[in-house]
Amino acid sequence: MKEITLFIENTSAPYLKKILFLYMDIYLVQLILCFIGITSDVNSIMLLVFYPSFIFLFLLHHRRYKAFISEGGLTRVRLLPVRKSTFLYSELLFQFMTYLGLLCTHFLAWTTIYLLLADQLPFLSNSFLFFQLSQTTSQAYIPFTVMVLIADLLKLVTLTCISTLLLISMETQKMLQTILIYSAAFVCILSFKLVILQMGLQNMDDFVNCMAMILLLPLHALQLKSYFIWKRRQPK
């Protein structure tokens, strides 16, 4: 664990402030969009910022990793007397914590918005504030149930693995392979969900999401292992 922490400190410390500033910007942007009245539907503001924020964070990781490679970071990693998989674990841990922090930032922003609007909208001023959220937002983004919370964590794991694989593939020729494999996997998942919807089993949506993310775990492991083996086979 000490080696992983040192890797994170050496590869990611310069970008930590930028990531924290991104969290702060996302939090403030949602509050500003809410109070300038860009739309009367608060939930649409949440969705308007939610998905692009993860793209911005990935682009920040992309810049960080690209700078790390240009400075000869991977060469130094190969020369260090430590297991090469330690670097991979450090990337996975750091990216997971940043994506988790981003999700917590959204939860904090949404909580603040609804608390501030509670006095303006009488139907929000009750002790069960979040139960007044729209069905879509409450089921998809607010972890009321254990199943939804587990699904959110599994989604973060999936996002972390895909993000790490895409970054590692920058110095290999496997980026297209990674994109095609995961695209095919998600097409299969979406097709299965469409079948579930046509069968009228909408109440199983959370369960299906959890099972889909769990079934992707072996794929993450195989992909990460293939990159590790590829690196070991390179000439010194």
Question: Would you mind describing this structure in some detail?
Answer:
There is one protein chain. The protein is an all-alpha fold and 236 residues long. It has 2 domains: 1-142, no CATH class; 145-236, no CATH class. It is built from 8 helices and no strands. It has helices at residues 2-35, 42-70, 73-79, 85-117, 135-140, 146-168, 175-198, 205-232. Helix 1 (2-35) packs antiparallel against helix 2, helix 1 runs parallel beside helix 4 (85-117) and helix 6 packs parallel to helix 8. Residues 122-129, 131-136 and 229-236 have low confidence and may be disordered.
Q: Unreliable stretches, pLDDT < 50, 5 or more residues?
A: 122-129, 131-136, 229-236
Please give the oligomerization state of what you see. Answer: single chain
End-to-end distance:
26 Å
Overall pLDDT level: 74
Helical run tally: 8
**What characterizes the major β-sheet?**
none
Outline, from the CA principal axes?
globular
What is the beta-strand fraction?
A: under 5%
Structural class: mainly alpha
Number of strands: 0
| Rg | 20 Å
Order of helices and strands: HHHHHHHH
Domain count, please report it.
2
Helix content: over 70%
